Amino acid sequence: MLFRQMFDKTSSTYTYLIASGRGREAVIIDPVKESTEAYLGLIDQLDLKLVRAIDTHTHADHVTALGALRDATQCVTIMGEYTNAECVSEHVSEGDRIDIDGIRLEAIYTPGHTDESFSFYWNQGGQQAVFTGDVLLIRGSGRTDFQGGDPRKSYDSIVNKLFCLPDDTLVYPAHDYKGMLSSSIYEEKHYNPRLAGKSEAEYAQIMNNLDLPDPKLMDVAVPANLACGKQ
Q: Measured between alpha carbons, how far is 159 from 128 in angstroms, rounded to an integer?
């Protein structure tokens, strides 16, 4: 199995490249446009064929590489069924499975950070992981104050969907701002300060009072990401 976690310093974005081995088909999750050449170089070096590129949601803090990667590799671009992005070759719904040369990802609809967010669950050979986008972060969760976000939907997505996955499932978010690489469902259930022991009402109160500034690139990134990464 080949797994790479890549980091964009400007937006603190994690991108994931997965393949069952060298010389095999690969999928990339939440790629950043500015890193397109680096992705293509790694894919070439490892003798991979990129066949799927996934965005968990319409990002507001960086421009997606979905369009650039599709142009370069003819890969199939994937997002959830509720997105308005133009560059989606294939839409997924709750429970849909994405099969790539020995790898299977299951789509989980997890609105809350945005109204079109999806997570992707990987369960293979005793190895379990979930790619949560921005809905569940390490010891935190994605803000819910724009792009159709809703704290109560976020709570439901996390507690009633993601927290129902096996405790040892690794959590790989799309962002981290403190240098953490991954977590687990068990850890986030018990140690996430926004969620552990909190009711839906308590969580909503926390999220409604974060008072965060808009992402620096929001006015550029959102329209670009709805147009295949074109600026």
A: 18
Asked if 115 contacts 135 with a C-beta cutoff of 8 angstroms, the reply is no
**What is the token pair recorded at 133?**
């986008």
- For residue 197, with 0-12 CB atoms within 10 Å meaning exposed, 13-18 middle and 19 or more buried, which class applies? exposed
The values of phi and psi at residue 95, to 5°, are 85, -10
What would the mean pLDDT of 58-77 be, rounded to a whole number?
Answer: 95
pLDDT in tens, 134-146: 999 999 999 999 8
For range 157-164, the mean pLDDT:
99
- Least confident window among 8-12, 105-109, 153-157: 8-12
- Listing DSSP states for 133-192 in one string gives ETTEETTEE---SSTT--HHHHHHHHHHTGGGS-TT-EEEESB-SSS---EEHHHHHHH-
Q: What is the mean pLDDT of residues 82-102?
A: 95
Query: Where is 220: in which H helix or E strand?
Result: helix 218-225
- The pLDDT tens digits of the residues spanning 199-224 come to 999 999 999 999 888 777 777 888 88
Domains located in the chain, CATH noted: 2-212 (3.60.15.10)
First to last CA, the chain: 36
Q: CB–CB of 156/169 below 8 Å?
A: no
